Amino acid sequence: MLLNIHDLNVTELQTKLNELNEPGYRANQIFKGLYSSRWKKFDDFTTLPKELRAKLENVFQIWSLKQVDFIKSELDETTKFLWQLQDGKRIESVIIYEGNRVTFCISSQVGCALDCKFCATGKMGIIRDLTPGEIVEQVLVMSEQSKLPPTNIVFMGMGEPMLNYDAVMHAAGIFSDPEGMCFSRKKITISTSGIIKHIYRMADEDQPYSLAISLNSVNQPVREKIMPVSKKYPIQDLLIAAKYYTDKTQRRVTFEYVLIKGINDSEDDAKELIRLTRGIPCKINVIPCNSDDPLYQAPNWDQVEKFDQLVNQSHRTITIRNRKGWEIKAACGQLYAENESPIRKRKISV
Ligand code: SAH
Ligand code: SF4
């Protein structure tokens, strides 16, 4: 079976080229060809000798994602893509246009193991992790199809990026490599439901990407109910990890807060959110819940604004994320791809 060339970083490419008795410097040329020139077949690599191109053809494939479908919102041009991976599994990713911002929302796993009750991806269970190449290719293909180049890349599509940490960091490294896609590190956001051990890892490894933590409730029993992962990683510990991250990196963290009617939208919730996040340099991003499930509905707009105002009074930076793409099921928490094989509700160790 051919290797996916997008799965390799420059160092790994060098090793592979050495195995093929080729000089390591060719790796940089190949890397540039793939990510700077965005060549899509080995014939395009005119910087390489013909014999090497033929050798590469025998070892690598250059493309693994197949676009199965795409749908564009008539309201706001949000575009959702459905991809088929080589083993037939399917994932989605989204482009969101907002003023000058063009956000690519990408997936890190096929499905998700964490079963947050308000999230469509959680209903899929976990099928498998994506490889670095499958993550990178989402951005490569969407860049071609987008009206404008991305200003932001967010790991807020399907899956929990911290549970596919190595592949996610590998892909983010390719996005931000000056010889690669040369994308600003601060504009790459890793969003986590709160896998604490990897928040510490990200801080200690000095990974310079933005971190978003999906807090979603400030009440431990409620959070456990809607986000079972919270049993293993309680709110108090999560906030300590967030503070550690901000101290270590000197960066703000973003707390995502999916606002759900009757569950986490009360005045007391807003006050507790203010109290718990005191002392942590942060932004708070409120996302009115997008769900078909009658148990997990967004509050009415007045309630959303009231919550916003309460938090705002505490001088926290708070934004309300609008629901772009909701009518094509492309908004936060709505990504769900039908997969032919039965879904494995695999028990995982988080
Ligand atoms: N697994 C990661 C990243 C993917 S989810 C995480 O949970 O952070 C991306 C964002 O969508 C998270 O902030 C999550 O809380 C939010 N989300 C999930 N379901 C949602 C829904 N039904 N409505 C609005 N936001 C939702
Ligand atoms: Fe997984 Fe994030 Fe959805 Fe929770 S919100 S099920 S962690 S994708």
Layout of helices and strands:
Blueprint: E1 3-4, H1 10-19, H2 25-35, H3 50-59, E2 60-61, E3 66-72, E4 79-84, E5 90-98, E6 101-105, E7 109-111, E8 126-129, H4 132-145, E9 152-155, H5 165-176, E10 188-192, H6 196-204, E11 210-214, H7 220-226, H8 235-249, E12 253-259, H9 267-277, E13 282-288, H10 301-312, E14 317-320
Parallel strand pairs: 1-2, 6-9, 9-10, 10-11, 11-12, 12-13, 13-14
Antiparallel strand pairs: 3-4, 4-5, 5-6, 7-8
Iron/sulfur cluster binds next to loops.
Q: What do you see in this structure?
A:
The chain is an alpha/beta fold and about 350 residues long. It is about 30% helix and about 20% strand. A hairpin with a 6-residue loop joins strand 3 and strand 4 (about 80-85). The structure holds S-adenosyl-L-homocysteine and iron/sulfur cluster.
Q: Compounds present?
A: S-adenosyl-L-homocysteine, iron/sulfur cluster
Fraction of residues in H or I helices = 25-40%
Structural class: alpha/beta
How would you describe the shape?
Answer: globular
Count of DSSP helices? 10
Strand content: 15-25%
- Mean pLDDT, rounded to whole units? 93
Order of helices and strands: EHHHEEEEEEEHEHEHEHHEHEHE
Strand order of the largest sheet: 3-4-5-6-9-10-11-12-13-14
Sheet with most strands: 10 strands, mixed
SS elements, strand count: 14
Q: Uncertain spans, ≥5 residues at pLDDT below 50?
A: 342-347
Radius of gyration: 21 Å
Distance from N terminus to C terminus (CA atoms, Å) equals: 31 Å
